[in-house]
Design brief:
The structure is a homodimer. Chain A is of the alpha/beta class. Chain A contains 13 helices and eight strands. In chain A, helix 9 crosses helix 11. Chain A starts with about 25 loop residues before the first helix and ends in a 22-residue tail after the last helix. Chains A, B: This is Xenobiotic compound family monooxygenase.
């Protein structure tokens, strides 16, 4: 996230931490160069459109401020072209909300980025969950969760039509007479009352539809993701649970008529590595000494809707809400020895989430955990180099080009030359 | 404009023309480097959110396509950071519509760009005039002209509050404890039903409010511009008329309580220069040989609402509409010898607008017309170098810093440290 405190409030104060330089363009271009040198698939930028506003009372702004808990933040679209200019293969995932962005304007923005990055762009589709985002964009309150996913489904269909269906594949010829051939660009949602008549003003880009990321975990979220996603983020869990989730995802994908192998999965993990296990654990403790625990509780409040400022310090917490909260919090400590039997009180929640948020931690040497890139490469479980230049090709790895796969619901809107 | 055919349809086919590379990032970074080497104040990107759709019948897409008459086009915000990364002083003016963009999302985008460019960003405020833009963003039809300007006025006040009033000037301190000090960030439009509650999620940038460009020419447009603009584009006219317009602007500005000298004016001019006058005129004729005249008439249709496809080739045109149309068209030929007495028929309209659109042309050697930058510099009428690093400082040239001037209506929303 383009903020000093994404999942580690207060860490911007660490001497080696550069996140408070996020407002400088050099921060982004340096980061992109480092990631491409390490052959990372992509750089993904999360986003929120407001402040967390749950902890210390509804609407509270202040709790996030000292640690910079995802506030302040800036627009994730704008550093992309500066990074694209200094890289060739690294992909860029950008978060944008189907609840608050206009579909035409967003489709145009992604098409522009797909051109300027030469096909290296992914869209992390979110429906947004902060009350403050709703009041920022002018709504009285949030659209209910399941309705947001229904909106998102219609929204994606509308944007597929703009990207895949408005320009025939052979519309742009740039010969000695014509840039675009008349008759090969059309309205895609001709109904007077529908949301975006088109045609998209932007000519077809390499991928047309950006590669689609999604992280839906609720029941409506999963139904949406298994229909539209090409890559899913799975929230922090242990390997056994991840396996079950992946199997469920593939099963649901098949039920939706998709090829289950065209949905890639990313299990999030927070890695702290050093030469020895001991050094790595010391590093973790050192990081913790910079953590802003109020910031942790602010983020917990926004994610769960639970304001822990109303809970006493010595109260044992019982997570009776959605299972995801229990799972989110308990998974954080799975790999930190010595914490298994500590009681879940407010201080522990704050501390477990402080470095890396609600994701399992892998802390240790690269020889103990499989967490060092050179070590992973030596073991043959991580590629030596990018296999292609576009996001879709590098993530799918199936040699089938930069366009949507045929099983994807967006592909049926494609306007072929033949 | 980020398009192959902004004000010269068909010219993308000229061997030295690079506009069809507008979808490549190198096109933009090369352009920015050239402009900064020449000490140009800024690069300004116009925009439209649809196709012209008047010429050859309401809703027509095809007429624009061969010449690429402002179609296709891409989002003007996205190449900015790539250009900012290769320059230090050049300013970037970006067009965005108050009718179609959400004020919170737009304010955040400009604040982000002001950070990433280190204060080199300007907003060209437009209310948009294409029917196709309305149907692209989901409206049934356009908001009427004068109402659009009323909306724009409220819109700007809302964004001033986000930029100037949400974060106290000393809110961000980044000391060993606090990134931002609690109590120094606030809601700015607390009414439940108003359009953007804030606070802006983005910390204060160098200029806070981007430098404001405007080109309003109608009566409601001028009232808006003389209230909000810091720099006005004046549409193509002869020097005498420009002088009168500038005097009117300054008079209206005073009536609105502003210092008339804080509104800068730019008289648009289309320059074709070569070693001798004869060579320059030959160059113009060569350019004309690449022009797509259907594209010219497409743009004329969109600007005026008049579909010249319904007019016979030998019909003498009488411009009985708003004075601006007459002025727009006739001004184009003011400096082209031999065209004064040619009748205004369809072919002449198309030809006069074909190279550079509705702006007066200066065609000749730099010694005849004051049109070559080295010659202008030799005469002491153009600066030798940038006077500062931010847009507002370079345009105002008054040594009074990067923030809004005190006479500007946005300055009263400023939340000062004292």
């Amino acid at each position: 996230m383009s903020t000093p405190g994404h999942l580690a409030s207060g860490l911007w104060r660490h001497p080696r931490n550069r996140t408070s330089q996020y407002i400088d363009i050099e921060y982004w271009t340096d980061l992109a160069r480092i990631l491409e040198a390490g052959k990372f698939h992509g750089l993904f930028i999360a986003d929120v459109l407001g402040h967390y506003g749950v902890y210390r009372g509804a609407g509270n702004i202040d709790a996030a401020l000292p640690g910079a808990a995802q506030f302040p933040n800036t627009d994730p679209f704008l550093p992309i072209t500066a990074m694209a200019a200094v890289t060739k293969k690294l992909s860029f995932g950008v978060t944008a909300s189907t609840t608050y962005e206009n579909p035409f304007l967003l489709a145009r923005r992604f098409a522009t980025l797909d051109h300027l990055t030469k096909g290296r762009i992914a869209w992390n589709v979110v429906t947004s969950h902060l009350e403050s985002a709703a009041t920022n964009v002018g709504l009285e309150t949030q659209v209910p969760h399941d309705e947001r996913y229904k909106m998102a489904d219609e929204y994606l269909i509308a944007t597929y039509k703009l990207w895949e269906g408005a320009w025939r594949d052979d519309a742009v010829i740039k010969d000695d007479k014509q840039y675009t051939v008349p008759g090969r660009v059309r309205y895609v949602n001709p109904g007077k009352y529908f949301k975006t008549a088109g045609p998209l003003t932007t000519e077809p880009s390499i991928q047309r539809t950006p590669f689609i990321f999604q992280a839906g975990a609720s029941s409506s979220g999963k139904a949406f993701a298994t229909k539209h996603a090409e890559c899913m983020f799975l929230i922090g869990m242990d390997p056994k649970t991840v396996r079950k989730t992946v199997e469920d995802v593939r099963k649901q994908a098949v039920e939706q008529g998709r090829n289950p192998n065209t949905i890639k999965t990313i299990a999030r993990i927070n890695i702290i590595v050093d030469d020895t296990d001991e050094k790595a654990h010391d590093k973790y403790q050192e990081y913790l000494s910079y953590a802003d625990l109020e910031g942790s509780l602010t983020l917990f409040g926004g994610w769960t809707g639970t304001d822990l400022s109303t809970i006493n310090d010595d109260e044992d917490l019982k997570f009776t809400g959605p299972g995801a909260i229990q799972s989110m919090v308990s998974s954080c400590s799975a790999t930190v020895p010595g914490t298994e039997n500590v009681k879940w009180r407010k201080a522990r929640v704050a501390r477990e989430l402080a470095i890396g948020g609600p994701h399992p931690k892998a802390i240790g040497s690269p020889y103990h955990y499989q967490v060092g890139l050179p070590e992973l490469r030596a073991r043959g479980v991580f590629w030596d180099d990018y296999s292609a230049s576009t996001t879709r090709e590098n993530y799918q790895g199936d040699g089938r080009g930069p366009r949507l796969r045929d099983d994807h619901p967006g592909s049926k809107y494609r306007w072929r030359a033949d």
